[in-house]
Structures are given as structure tokens and as C-alpha cells.
Amino acid sequence: MHLRLPCPACGWAEKRAERTRLIHIGDASATLTAVCTDHGDYEVTVIPEDNAYIDLATLYRNLVKERVLAGEAATLPVMVKGGDWAPGCQLVDTAFAALHGIHPPARIFTPMILTDTGAKLSKSLIRDNKVAPPPGAQPWMLNATEWNGSIDDYVDAMVWLVRLMLSDPKHFYRSYTTLEVDRLMSARTVTPTSPPRARHMNLYRRYFDLVVSGRKAIEVRVQYANLRNLAAGQYIRFACGTDECLVQVKRVARYTSFEEMLDTEGPANVNPDSPREEQLANIRRIYGPEKEALGVLAIEITRV
């Protein structure tokens, strides 16, 4: 049985589960036995309320994962796998054929990243200091936060690399060494004419028209997690229906309340057509007390 349950005493499990046995199965439970090289025989009962760890062999794990995804009628599941999994998927397809009713999801096989010896790049082994980083393995290949630049620049680089790979099918029929990936990324051409990456924000029509006319200098938001890193120099694309307006952030100020924000920034900069108390009431109709408690952002903007 290709089902592994770690030893309760040490957490070790047989790689291929040669001595794992199912001894009882009920409507909502299963009891299995296995053998630990250090602690001998052990027994594990799995129930829905328990936190027992079950490790399926890779092939079975992929079958379960793909059948669950393929059974979701409201979505189009697409599995993205490394090119080394192409042969293994033939076995998964055979299992799908035996289990009627659900077809395998679409799959995309990506090129593998190899070391100088031809072995598959293993980030986990390098992080655990079990093997040395191969030639050309830059820090960002092992940890994206080590990228020498901004997050936007990293995303641009990754999108550029994906576009390069998609430009010719032959790129998906080979693998790449870390040296070659580093060379490709170093040779990346940056096109200054590309449109700036912008955050998308929806606006009510009355506020959108003020932004378009240039009369609204301050946009008010609360500090959701996705806005915590908003900073001067970034871009926002406001949308109202099919209309859009691109602005650049000049300044971001943070306040504890909407009153503090209006008193500091000035109501006319937020909405020149509305008095302070009316603005405060309108803002609080949009953002309740629990949202205001997150923190208030005053975003100074200018049209691009």
C-alpha cells in the first residue's frame, strides 16, 4: 500500500511503505499498522477529527489532486508540472481511464532547471546545506526576496522569461541549467515604452469624474493588506464601468480616523463639491467602523 504514516515516536516513515497494512476500515475511520526501524511496530487510526498525517506516494497524490480539481465543474483546472513529470502522467491517465466519469485536467509541462551536472536543481537540499549551490545559481533563484531590485522589477523579469519560453514550443522540449537561466535574465532587454504597472481600483462615478477632471487631489482608502506597501511613484488605474484613468501616487499619508484625515488633508482636496460633514458621512457609509480601525490612507494623486 503506497500510503505512509509517520512513526508517532520519531516521525520516520518507510519511503515506499512496504510494511504498511490496512487492518480495519469503517465509514469514518481507518486503522493501519507500519514498522519503524527504531521503534518497531506501530498503529495509527485515522478519523476526520484527528490531525494524523498521511503521506501518499507521489503518483497517488497526483491522482487524488487531479481528480479533485477535475471534478469542479465551475472552473477550468490547469495543472502546471515540471517536464520530468511527463512520463509519470501516463500512469495517472491510465488510472483516470479506470475511474469513469471525470477526465484529466489540462496540463502544462514547464522546462526543468538543472545544475551543471545535469541533476535537477533542488532548492531544499541547498537550503539544508546538503549540496552546494551549482555554478550560476543566483540567490534569487533560491529565494525570490533576494532579487536585486523591486518587486515590480522581479515580476517584469519573470513575465519576460515566461514570454520568451512561450515564444517557441521548442523551449518546452529542453531543460535549462542555472548558468543559462542567469545568462537569459542578464540579457533581458527593458523597454522603457512599456506601460507602467498599475494597481486597479474601482471608483464611484462622482469620484471618478473628479479624478478625470483633475479636481480630486486626495483619494481615501483604508489600509487593507494589499495597500500596506503603497508608496509614492507607484501607479493606480481607476475604473468606473468601462472607463479608466491612470494616475501616479505623489504621497501616501496614514491616519487613525477619517476625521483626522479630513482635518489634515482638507475636505476640498478629497471632494471639492461636498462639505466636510457630508464627506465624512459618505465615507463611513462605504467603510464601517471595523474597516476604519485598519487605518486610513490619504493618497495624493496626479493624472498621467
UniProtKB/TrEMBL annotation:
Pfam families assigned: ASCH
Family annotation (SMART domains): ASCH
Residue ranges of domain ASCH in the record: 201-303
Name assigned to this protein: ASC-1-like (ASCH) protein
Organism: Streptosporangium becharense
Organism phylogeny: Bacteria, Bacillati, Actinomycetota, Actinomycetes, Streptosporangiales
